């Protein structure tokens, strides 16, 4: 039986420049590094997992493990416009 570890919020992020393959996040917390893997959930869409590709000050380039739909992209941008943002979970 495989145990599941509890995931906790690592950083809050606002999505910018969202495509099916990745996005740029503006983050509020330092200490995020290239190569770290995160997941997040947007509304009722399946969880999205990916990897930090680059970090410059408070911005990170984030590549999704799998392409996301146009509807999920739009949901990410809607959520980010209202400064609700997304919670990144370290995986």
TrEMBL record:
Protein's UniProt name: PilZ domain-containing protein
Protein's organism: Novosphingobium resinovorum
